[in-house]
Amino acid sequence: MPKKTSNSSKAPVLGGLRQAMQENGLDAYIIPSQDPHQSEYVADHWQARRWLTGFTGSAGTAVVTASTAHLWTDSRYFIQAEAQLAGSEFELQKLTVPYTAEHLEWLCEHLPSGAAVGCDARLFTVSQARSARRKLAEKHIELSFSNYLIDDLWADRPPLPGDEVFELEQKYAGQTRADKLNAVRSKMKEGSCYLVTALDEIAWLLNIRGNDVECNPVAISYFLLGPESAQWFIDPGKVPDRLKQSLEQDGISINPYAGIAEALRHAGANQKIGYQPEALSVFLYELLEAARWMKTPNLIAPLKAVRNTIEKENLKLAMRKDGVALLHLYRWLEDALDKGASPTEFELGEKLAGFRAEQEGYFGESFPAIVGYTGNGAIVHYRAEADTAARIRPEGILLLDSGGQYREGTTDITRTVALGPVSEKVKDHYTRVLKGHIGLSSAIFPEGTTGVQLDILARQHLWAAGLNYGHGTGHGVGHFLNVHEGPQGITPNPRTSRGQTPIVPGMLTSNEPGFYKADEYGIRIENLDLCVEKMETDTGKFYTFEPQTLFPIATDLILLPLLSTEERQWLNEYHARVLKELSPLLNSAEQAWLEKKCRQV
User: Fold this and answer.
1) How do residues 311-351 score in pLDDT, each as one tens digit?
2) Using an 8 Å Cβ cutoff, are 527 and 389 in contact?
3) Containing H/E element for 572?
4) Going by C-beta distance under 8 Å and a sequence separation of 6 or more, which residues neighbour residue 497?
């Protein structure tokens, strides 16, 4: 089970927050998970929701009133949240639809007309603010964005990270920052500026990487691009002199992180600033008159999502390295179990990180490994802790979802393996998940197809048996950047921008259907698939996916009669490619192990 945090110390904090709310005339206060850059994973400095509630999941919204405290999160975290909120005043509210603001419905139902709700203007976007104000106004509830109550309460708050950034060489990036700046400028409206707030977009644009957020090689900063100017707002002490000189040669000035506010105020009076309402904070937006802002499509995400030739070649190198590290891990585990040892889930995750670290160009994990043995595998975003992790034995099944950051690219892979005999029911569920994985990976689809249209391919065989899973099927993956990136995704939710974005050649997307039986087991099979051109006919262009991940998919869990001839062919061809790509990097004993795992079915 997830580690239970001690919540007894939170009572005085909640009392202090409620006193501050009363002094500011607030009936409720919203504490989200994000930072001023709308990052999925945030630096410790911005972990206010985790600090207040004790819940460590990456997604969730806390709401505190004078007499209640609630936390909303989605199905990935239900089990984790129940464990970590136990003994606290916070009550779990299970989201019906992921990524939606259902807490606003609750506020409308439970607060009286004329009530006031407060929140931090730095942490809410313009679009979130507009939507929330419209919803709350239905019940004549006011939303205030001028209340930074947490700042005064969080006495031991971690400082903003101070690690140095570094340059990603062109042999890895495949394109100079000057070319990227020109590409973005070519899409800007004449005479306007363009404000970039997303950390991964800034890192990609400038060919820099950092270490400010766990597992995400980004640096906390802003970037303001003009027709002739380029200003990077970051702690200047984090930029080495050599990199600073290189940036200046490309016409980029270095400014203090907090200087973004002053720069916006002093931007040319006739110069509009392009922004996305879903990315810009209310704090920055309210620095200028509304007429100074110009709603603009995201000019960087579509460019960043499409791998260039060098990035695609580097990705293949990263996948080979990752495959070797995983091979070492699974051989080590089998050997340990054969000798009667029972390593813990935590130890297995540490061991895998060690094997990855042996690979040249390794930077770190792309996310904390999810090592879920038996019932823990049903906790979608389970994180084993040293003192509570389960011991792994030669029985049941193990789900391992992990990834690495290499100079050549980012990896994310899930495999489910049997460590002993399993029931026909488990094999049936596993085979249905595999059929969905193959169905999505082998899909041929016309230009313009979106992730919402493709999602059913991964679920149809589970649905046929009355089964389903509560998370999305796929997410975009960065290039030595964030493991979860847009603009594309594969999801059943038609209201998300990721699900509505057409998937085009060069985009790298995860393919990870699953099934989870609470307290018993979890099943997930994940590869990263690159969209490639398939053919062009009289009716248009057609695309398909090419698996990039290189590691065997367990075959001893398959009910072979359930696989079609085409599905067997896909699996055999995939394993033949895995064997071909990894064998030259292995010794004879490792090759023999891999040949066995890649045997034809």
Assistant:
1) 999 999 999 999 999 999 999 999 999 999 999 999 999 99
2) no
3) helix 565-582
4) 278, 486, 487
* Res. 8: pLDDT tops 60: no
DSSP H or E stretch at residue 589: helix 588-597
Q: Checking phi first, is residue 190 left (phi over 0); if not, alpha (psi -120 to 50) or beta? A: beta
Q: Between the CA of residue 216 and those of 262, 301, 566, what are the distances in Å?
A: 28, 16, 38
Q: Looking at residue 10, what is its pLDDT?
A: 64
pLDDT score at 96: 86
Q: Helix, strand, or coil here: 54? A: coil
Cα atoms in the Cβ-side hemisphere of radius 13 Å centred on 89: 17
pLDDT tens sequence across 242-261? 999 999 999 999 999 999 99
Contacts of residue 561, Cβ cutoff 8 Å, sequence gap at least 6 = none
C-alpha span between 91 and 89 (Å, rounded): 6
Largest CA distance in the chain: 74
Q: Residue 161's Cα: distance from chain center in Å?
A: 20
Do residues 34 and 42 make contact, with C-beta atoms less than 8 angstroms apart?
Answer: yes
Contact indicator for 85, 56 with CB cutoff of 8 Å? no
In this model, does residue 104 exceed pLDDT 80?
Answer: yes
pLDDT at 224 over 60: yes
Pairwise CA distance, residues 17 & 24, whole Å: 11
Q: Give Cβ neighbours of residue 81 (< 8 Å, ≥ 6 apart).
A: 55, 57, 60, 71, 73, 92
The pTM of the whole model exceeds 0.70: yes
For residue 2, pLDDT beyond 60: no
Helices (H), 411-467: 424-441, 451-463
Eight-class DSSP state of 186: T
Q: CA dist 313 to 510, 544, 548, 583, Å?
A: 18, 18, 11, 18
Q: What is d(CA 48, CA 151) in angstroms, rounded to the nearest whole number?
A: 9
Alpha-carbon Rg for the chain, nearest whole angstrom, is 25
Strand boundaries in 375-499, DSSP class E: 397-402, 404-406, 409-410, 413-418, 444-446, 474-476, 485-490
- Strand, coil or helix: 331: helix
Helix (H) or strand (E) holding 93: strand 90-94
- Round to whole Å and give the CA distance between 71 and 303: 36
Token pair listed for 287: 């620095």
Neighbour-count burial for 165-200, b at 16+ CB within 10 Å, e otherwise: bbbbeeebbbbebeebbeebeeebeeebbbbbbbbb
Pull the structure tokens for residue 196.
């970039």
